[in-house]
Design a protein that fits this description.
alpha/beta; Rossmann fold; 265 residues; two-stranded antiparallel ribbon; 8 strands; 6-stranded mixed β-sheet
Length: 265
């Protein structure tokens, strides 16, 4: 997709429609944030591409944020620097402008994944840190039974981990990031032990894939999950999820470092 929505959203999701209240649900979880900080290493200057409302931006570094959606830029808290209106595949910076760069659960929204990652590599001397979900869930879990359409959509939208690794090139590693049961960041997978939360419209709206699920399927999901929770059928079948302290929902941290002699971009 190359056209931009009315608020500048450049991906397939229209954040002028679904972005309201996003920052209230999609808050940075400190345990995930710690993994990102570790991956950024000792970088002092950091570029955040597809920065949204600023989740996971380190507050102890000099951060430059890029975000095309006006709706998301408006939700950035006052203590973060304003984001630049630009696209991932045309970053307005010189080669080697930043010590590190990052992108948090956003690469599936980019019009051109390879171009965006190449641009991040071009402007970054150190690590390029990508937080994303594997489009192939590592385990079968209860949400896949109630909303199979959601996972069919995500399997088409989320780029494969190998494609990200290949685009970054150099010395690239992939780490599993387990989701804690009380995860603060409200993407759908974080509610593996709290199914009731996914009955809330504002929680579903904070995961862009729900905006592509047909209305009839969403209504069926709410009706069936609500009924099973009320009757105890959900707990009888899936109750073990409530006891899990952490869960592999497919969240991955891909860290690319420029190989010796590898040119920018």
């Amino acid at each position: 997709m190359t056209d931009r929505y009315s608020d500048g959203s450049a991906g397939d999701a229209d954040y002028s429609r679904i972005g309201e209240g996003y920052a209230l649900i999609r808050r940075p979880d400190p345990r995930i944030a710690a993994r990102i900080l570790e991956a950024l290493g000792d970088a002092r200057t950091v570029l955040n591409v597809g920065a949204g409302a600023g989740s996971y931006e380190p507050v102890d570094r000099a951060v430059t944020a890029v975000e095309p959606s006006a709706s998301m830029r408006a939700q950035r808290p006052a203590w973060l620097t304003p984001a630049i209106d630009a696209l991932s595949d045309h970053l307005p910076f010189d080669d080697d402008s930043f010590d590190a760069s990052m992108a948090s659960v956003t690469v599936h929204q980019w019009p051109d994944l390879a171009a965006g990652l190449s641009e991040m590599r071009r402007v970054t001397t150190g690590p390029v840190v990508i937080l994303t979900f594997d489009p192939a869930p590592p385990v079968h879990w209860w949400l896949m039974d109630y909303a199979p359409e959601l996972f069919e959509i995500e399997s088409r939208r989320m780029p494969s981990i190998p494609s990200i690794v290949a685009a970054l090139g150099g010395d690239t590693t992939v780490e599993t990031v387990l989701l804690p049961r009380d995860c603060v960041d409200g993407f759908a997978q974080s509610f593996f032990a709290r199914p009731e939360r996914l009955l809330e419209p504002e929680v579903r709206r904070a995961t862009s894939a729900w905006s592509f699920v047909p209305a009839a399927a969403v209504e069926r999901f709410v009706r069936e999950l609500g009924s099973d929770l009320a009757s105890g059928a959900w707990d009888a079948r899936y109750g073990e999820f409530r006891g899990l302290t952490e869960f592999d929902g497919g969240l991955r941290l891909v860290v690319g470092r420029r190989a010796p002699g590898q040119p920018p971009g």
